[in-house]
Amino acid sequence: MTAGVRTRRRARALAVAVTCLVIAACGGESDTPAPVLTLDPGNYPTTPRDMEAERTPATGSRQESIRLAEHVVLMMDLNPRLVFGSRNITTRHLTAQHPTVSGLFESVADYNARIPGLVAGWRTAGSRREQTNLGLDATLTVLRFTTPEQAENAKNVLAELNNEKFPPKEPLTLSGHPSSRAYRTAYDSVQAWTTHGEYLLQTYVSDGLALPPDPAPLLEFTRSVVDEQIRRLDSYDPTPPDRLDEVPADIDGLLGRTLPYPEPGNYNDPTAVYPARVFLHVDSRPDLTARAFEDAGVDLVARADSLIYRAADTAAAERLVGALVEQHTDMSPTDAPEGSPPGTRCVQEPAGTPESPRPIRTTQCYLTHDRYVAAVAATQPQDLTQRIAAQYLLLAAED
After folding, report:
1. pTM (2 decimals)?
2. Which of 11, 55, 263, 338 could be joined to 59 by an S-S link, Cβ 3.0–4.6 Å?
3. Whether pLDDT at 192 is above 80
4. Percent of the chain scored above 70 by pLDDT?
């Protein structure tokens, strides 16, 4: 018997076992027929992965970037109106294997040749409105290097390359930070590079509705971001670069129960496990999600090709599903696929208009098991059904 056949048989056996467990005791008597729970995972895995066995050279740096992010300021902490996270940022964690090339460098190798020593990094953003050009908008990137000299080199290289490609209107002075190189951009934004020991802080602050354009308030907000970020770095305990392979790839096996990202190692691969506070950086509405997390006692979020939230208990998990569904104001409630686990709730993108139809629509579904909430998405009904089944079986699998 081949390994593939054994795996499929184990998956079918587990599906039957879970069906009996969560719906009714197999062979038991009931006044009403138990609903049939059909769990067909297709070719998706149903056995939790050992993330340590799947380590790559970027694993330690990625999780170290998330450790760093525990000490990175959220924009809404500085201004409670900056409640929209930028959807234009696809990757938050930055490493030597996956830096931000941003059109300034020919390749990752070119980046590392010009800017050596990158250990870990994190990017965050916040804006007044969903459309970032309609009000105050701020982006912060924190990069950690091996030495202060490397951070200083990175500051100068990035500033000069950026100014060459996007000539600024004038240089500016960032009060209290003589190491900073700050500029008023061609779009009347304030862009700055500031070093603090082995750290480089990149900031970009704009206000598309400010008339007439005035760099003074943007420069002042930049200063508040830099001041607060430097203060928070004092509580960060960095892992030495030669010990990054000791940074855990997973926490409590949570990441191993997600659906695997189809292109591991890709620049946009989000595979990681986040403390709840750090996950707010990647959320589109961190203010709403922060309240939902607090109410449900969420402490960890695992992210790969699906999401898993760990809540305080079963009741908290059910409340969390309700809160997450309500946040989808751009999507409409829709029925869960037939045979989905009880309590599964789904939302779907709108169909569009006759003039601008949306033939391919994403459906996102939330399901629970014990204290866990999982989110899966797909554009095809059969694929969605299989993803839901596989994700549920991963959550229900024995440790």
Report:
1. 0.87
2. 55
3. yes
4. 88
List the domain boundaries for the chain: 59-233, 252-396
CATH 3.10.350 assigned to domain 59-233? The reply is no
Residue 20 pLDDT? 41
Question: Average pLDDT for residues 317-331, to the nearest whole number?
Answer: 94
Q: Show the 3-state SS of the chain.
A: CCHHHHHHHHHHHHHHHHHHHHHCCCCCCCCCCCCCCCCCCCCCCCCCCCCCCCCCCCHHHHHHHHHHHCCCCCHHHHCCCCCECCCCCCCCEECCCCCCCCCCCCCHHHHHHHCCCEEEEEEEEEECCCCCCCCEEEEEEEEEECCHHHHHHHHHHHHHHHHHHCCCCEEECCCCCCCCEEEECCCCCEEEEEEECCEEEEEEEEECCCCCCCHHHHHHHHHHHHHHHHHHHCCCCCCCHHHHHHCCCCCCCCHHHCCCCCCCCCCCCCCEEEEHHHHHHHCCCHHHHHHHHHHHCCCEEEECCCEEEECCCHHHHHHHHHHHHHCCCCCEEECCCCCCCCCCEEEECCCECCCCECCCCCEEEEEEECCEEEEEEECCHHHHHHHHHHHHHHHHCCC
